[in-house]
Amino acid sequence: MGTTALIDYGAGNLHSVANALKAAGAADVAITADPAVVRAADRIVLPGVGSFKACAEGLRGCAGLEAALTERVLGAGVPFLGICVGMQLLATRGVEHGITPGLGWIPGEVRLIEPATPDIKIPHMGWNDVVARPEAALVESGEAYFLHSYHFVTDDPAHVLATTHHGQELAAAVGRGNIVGTQFHPEKSQSFGLALLTRFLEWRP
């Protein structure tokens, strides 16, 4: 098992994710924004906490990082996991604080959760069921920890790997090919999250 690059662009709870990856079996976790380290990594994890706009700007503020990610993930097919806003950045765009382009790796838009009734609280916070599609890569059904006010609406429903319900059906995980993103936090989801990270470390898409 080679190096897992955990991307440090000022927008993630890096140490809890790093500790969870190590607990899941990662031998070498490099917390990095260095394009050279990214290009040498065997797996890449993109965390994210905060607004879509701030995270996108933080990522693009690291010289050469977006190009290195694109080269390694889209070009070389390295296994990729996005977490929370790190998943949302896979979208074409987000609309929080104005329209901000995402990476565009999974076509779609990140929008505010707009519940039909006032008893559905925003943000969606706490433990909730994850219902995985039978053919989903990495993601299985179970219970995970969520904390978000915006959700990923994919252009193609086939890119939704799992759903959760919070007043409406929301994407809990998205993916295509060697790319998977989870709206929930595996690093806060105890045995369910650790099992997903273990599968990611062994994944050969």
Question: Explain this structure to me?
Answer:
The longest helix is centred in the C-terminal third of the chain and has 13 residues, at 190-202. By secondary structure, the protein is of the alpha/beta class. It has one domain (3-202): Rossmann fold. 26% of the residues lie in helices and 32% in strands. Strands 2-1-3-4-13-12-11-8-9 form a nine-stranded mixed sheet.
What order do the helices and strands come in, and which of them pair?
Layout: E1 3-7, H1 14-23, E2 28-32, H2 35-40, E3 43-46, H3 52-60, H4 65-75, E4 80-83, H5 85-88, E5 93-94, E6 100-101, E7 108-112, E8 124-132, E9 142-148, E10 150-154, E11 160-165, E12 169-176, E13 179-182, H6 190-202
Parallel strand pairs: 1-2, 1-3, 3-4, 4-13, 5-7
Antiparallel strand pairs: 5-6, 7-10, 8-9, 8-11, 11-12, 12-13
Spell the H/E element sequence.
Answer: EHEHEHHEHEEEEEEEEEH
Principal-axes shape call: globular
Fold-level CATH name: Rossmann fold
CATH class: Alpha Beta
Which regions are unreliable across 5 or more consecutive residues at pLDDT < 50?
Answer: none
CATH superfamily annotation: Class I glutamine amidotransferase (GATase) domain
Helix content: 25-40%
Please give the alpha-carbon distance between the first and last residues: 15 Å
**Rg to the nearest angstrom?**
16 Å
Oligomer: single chain
Helix/strand structural class: alpha/beta
* Mean pLDDT level: 96
Write the CATH architecture name: 3-Layer(aba) Sandwich
Portion in beta strands: 25-35%
How many strand segments? Answer: 13
Q: What does the largest sheet look like? A: 9 strands, mixed
Return the domain count. Answer: 1
Strand order of the largest sheet: 2-1-3-4-13-12-11-8-9
Distinct helical segment count = 6
